[in-house]
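Z., the sequence and structure:
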Amino acid sequence: MDNIQVFMRIRPLSEDEYRRDRSTESAVRILADNVVSIPSQRSENFAFDFVGDESCSQSEVFESVGKRAVEQCMQGYNGTIFAYGQTGSGKTFTMQGASDEFTGPDDELRGLIPRCFEYLFTRIAEEEARTNGRVKYLCRASYIEIYNETIYDLLDPLTRTCAMREDIKRGVFIDNVTEETVQHPNEAYDVFMRGTTNRHVSATSMNRESSRSHSVLMLVIQSLTQMDSELTEVRESRFNLVDLAGSERQKLANTSGLRLKEAANINKSLSTLGNVINSLVDIGNGRSRHVNYRDSKLTFLLRDSLGGNSVTFIIANVSPAICNDIETASTLRFAQRAKMIRNKAIVNQDMQGNVPQLQAEIQRLRAHIAQLKANVSSPTSTNNLTLSPGSTQRSTPIGDGPLLSAGVTTGLSDKEHRTTQFLLILAMRKLRESERQKARYAEIIFELKDSLDRRKRQLQQHNLVLKLKNAEIAALRRNAPIGYVTSAENSALREEITALQSALSAQPDASDLLIENLQLREDLEYCLESQQSDGRLPERSDAVLALETLINTKACSVDLQRNFPIIPDDNVYMGLEDRIKQAQHDINDLELQRDKLEFQINSIEEDWQSVNDGAHKLAKVTLPDQVADIIEETMDCIVGDQARDTWSFISSLYSKSLLDY
């Protein structure tokens, strides 16, 4: 079991930060090779596996992180590289590089991802040449993003969303995601750049190209090795390159509207990641904790990278500006806690071959194990055993050979010894894998039981509320006045009202008919005063008689227009069009105001929910460090000023009471 490796990188000071601080002094002080501190925050010292200052180059980052991760993946281990930090701290520059255009292996500013591509395919070519083609490699790439807790396939922008599934053998995976086979670093980088163009990016006051989503580039590296015994060894490793969206404060980023909602979801997802890391650290210290991987799509997708079967590296990117010292201290605390997590990485390998041959090897191993057990349990056993009567026997001294000891003589050749040793090791690994699956089953059962208990408690609460409502309704009915009507009477009255409304709507409105008749009279007088042309207008007496007949018979406006053609007026039509456009414009403004109010209401509800959750968390902890972390995490999730002031007041009261205690 190995701890997560943490690399800290300090980016150079930007012009905006220099104008804000009016100083070139760095907020991060490097005390030793791998030890740093933040004097302005009076924080403790932070120790990491590697620390890179402002002059740290991209090649140094690759040699310290990327190269080691690729080597582990070539051996069959799963690998993951996280880029973590506040917005504008240089995560995308570290992972991708300085520009969107790939200029080839001579570009010194190219990031970790293209360098990993180059080194990976170089190592694949070396391995295939060294083994004379006995080892074959296959690489597949896929690229997704998690935007507002929704998974999108960046290689297929026409697909709206992707679903996340869980399987006993495959673990957690993305269903129906696009996977492309890559055989060259340029092909892999082309896949990466096509996905990057579809990623959600926008500008804030802290970053001109701020990532608004978490992106995960997933590489599946599969190797096939042909053994001497016509068996095939299969190794498969997963290499995840994760560029996390940066945490940000609304006061510094000046976000609003959709950007504000994105920032709230990003901070919530990173807060869940911090809670998962805290739970894993407590488990490493011997405490019993339940790890809430399912609270976020990011943590659930990368659960093997956090305390599971993976070799994980974290690159903590920080800003040297004094104005960002609070966010820098938070990033370093996160990285220091993550460094305490212990992963359980194993080689992902399996055997394939002819079924009869595998069965024969299994029978031979069983017979071999049975004879060894009989030899150990027999008090009169000699130092030699004959495994095959007609075979040439050979004595093995004590301590010689990886499998046989205590001077056991077998009829197996060196080749058979190696095959037997390999199959025994494979059987032991299968046993360990079954134990891990059993532990995973137990964890899933525990989560299902916990979810069932929560549902039962919610059902009990709903039943209690229902009983109280029914009791309240019964009391109101008992205390109701004499004129109170029952629900059945209300239903009958509603049906009667509906019938009356239907009958009324079927009759023409008298006011509409009156207005229509007056308008027709005015139009008729206007037409009679004008010149008659082509005999289209009727005589006055005939028109009056027809009009009175139509009024008495309550004819509709269509009949009136057919009998009395009216010359349209362009000015009237233009006025109506203008009024229609103005009404449509007013409707659009009202809809925008409604959406804005709904967003503000949702934001306020999320803020007060964060305050409530933070208060419950404070009630369960007693250590000052945990209290400070909870206060800071909750403050990052709150957007509104009123909720922030309330949380500040609550946290100050709790901190004061804790100090008094």
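The longest helix spans residues 414-478. Residues 100 and 547 are 77 Å apart (CA to CA).

Let me know what you think.
H.
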